[in-house]
């Protein structure tokens, strides 16, 4: 991790992705096509692309433009430069451990998910990247341990977030399609309650869980 005043270069996803965390930057120019995520949780802390806001816990794709009034942001630079290379995906699979080997959860056993190291930014936000092979579910779950609020951001490829009434595929009731730059709306309510839910890949894809301590 390299820190330069309010810009921190993060190496948790290196060498596959160039990631920076920004704090209190009035203006930051982005040249390459990149992902920008607003990591603020306060409702009035917007990041602007020209005159258009990126709302808290939302994202977008930008190129050749300055983002302004940055309180907290994560930038993934030139994010899709290697996405069409089979060796890129194979290298990630070889470098990152499986989700099951990290969690030990039965619901993760046998699914082709691979997880980068996790880092903390902004004091209470934990992030990592997950690679999922096509058409793979993460496993339905409702409770997070430890207790935290969570949203997911799409980095590469396509996936979907799904909700269920119970821990049963037959009780599926809602789906949110995820494309690069998308952060789904909060699934949790003010009390921290979650429905049964899971991430489900569509293509080879990378997504980012964002865990926020209450």
Describe this structure in words.
The protein is mostly beta strands. It has 2 domains: 2-77, Jelly Rolls (Sandwich); 86-212, Jelly Rolls. Helices cover 7% and strands 44% of the residues. It is built from 2 helices and 17 strands. The chain has helices spanning 86-95, 99-103, and strands at residues 2-4, 7-10, 18-30, 34-38, 47-49, 52-54, 59-62, 65-77, 113-115, 119-121, 125-127, 130-132, 149-156, 159-164, 172-178, 196-201, 205-212. The longest helix has 10 residues, at 86-95. The mean pLDDT is 94.
As residue ranges, the low-confidence spans are none
Percent of residues in beta strands:
35-45%
Write down the CATH topology of the largest domain.
Jelly Rolls
CATH architecture type of the largest domain: Sandwich
The overall average pLDDT, rounded, is 94
Q: Main beta sheet: strand number and arrangement?
A: 8 strands, antiparallel
**Into which percent range does the helicity of residues fall?**
under 10%
Element string (H = helix, E = strand)? EEEEEEEEHHEEEEEEEEE
Based on Cα principal axes, name the global outline.
Answer: globular
What's the gyration radius in Å?
A: 17 Å
In the residues, how many domains can be counted? Answer: 2
CATH C-level label of the largest domain: Mainly Beta
Number of strands: 17
Structural class: mainly beta
The helix count comes to 2
Terminal Cα span: 25 Å
